[in-house]
């Protein structure tokens, strides 16, 4: 809300159906951090924990050999671009080595 610039936010609690106006000059939208791993539900070969985060070893391999995970879908202590780039690189090399050993 605001006439020429952002001045306030009208928010509604959908559980209690209460509305209120919060005065502010800036705001951040937190869109959540749930891993999109619903397709793994009921899959006993790929272990997950804490709301669906895929568990891997330090080569990013899941509990199912040949299936690797990196990024926000993986159980780890920090969800940041810098860590995802690192673990993505490790996963890529691990996939390559896995395929080399298979041929
Ligand atoms: C609000 C918010 C603010 C953040 N701020 C910061 C910050 O300031 N600094 C920082 O370092 N990190 C920040 N992060 C964390 C960072 O964005 C994530 O850790 C990082 O983007 C995760 O990378 P990812 O590749 O695992 O997942 P994503 O970046 O989510 O990429 C996954 C991609 O896969 C695609 N996808 C999904 N399902 C499928 C499918 N079935 N087939 C094909 N493609 C699919 C998606 O469309 C998406 O493009 C923030 C996160 C959020 C939510």
Could you describe the 3D structure shown?
It is a single chain. With 103 residues, the protein is an alpha+beta fold. The chain has a domain of 71 residues: FAD/NAD(P)-binding domain. The protein is 21% helix and 16% strand. The chain is built from one helix and four strands. It has a two-stranded antiparallel ribbon. The termini are far apart. The chain binds flavin-adenine dinucleotide (FAD). The site of flavin-adenine dinucleotide (FAD) has 11 residues, from helix 1.
Which key terms come to mind for this protein?
4 strands, two-stranded antiparallel sheet, FAD/NAD(P)-binding domain, two-stranded antiparallel ribbon, elongated, binds flavin-adenine dinucleotide
SSE topology string: EEEEH
pLDDT averaged over residues: 92
Structural class: alpha+beta
CATH class of the domain at 32-102: Alpha Beta
| Beta-strand percentage range | 15-25%
Strand order across the largest sheet: 1-2
Parts with pLDDT < 50 across at least 5 consecutive residues? none
Give the total of beta strands.
Answer: 4
CATH superfamily descriptor of the domain at 32-102: FAD/NAD(P)-binding domain
Q: What Rg do the Cα atoms give?
A: 21 Å
CATH-derived architecture of the domain at 32-102: 3-Layer(bba) Sandwich
Roughly what percent helix?
A: 10-25%
Which small compounds were modeled alongside the protein? flavin-adenine dinucleotide
Shape: elongated
Q: Remind me, CATH topology of the domain at 32-102?
A: FAD/NAD(P)-binding domain
End-to-end distance, in Å? 61 Å
Largest sheet: 2 strands, antiparallel
Task: Count the DSSP helices.
Answer: 1
């Amino acid at each position: 809300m605001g006439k020429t610039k952002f001045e306030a936010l009208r928010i509604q609690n959908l559980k209690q159906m209460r509305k209120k106006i919060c005065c502010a000059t800036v705001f951040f939208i937190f869109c959540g951090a749930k891993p999109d791993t619903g397709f793994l539900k009921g899959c006993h070969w790929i272990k997950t924990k804490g709301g669906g985060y895929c568990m891997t070893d330090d080569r990013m391999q899941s509990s199912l050999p040949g299936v690797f995970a990196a990024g926000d879908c993986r159980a780890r202590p920090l969800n940041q671009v810098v860590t995802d780039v690192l673990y993505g690189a490790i996963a890529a090399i691990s996939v390559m080595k896995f395929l080399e050993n298979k041929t």
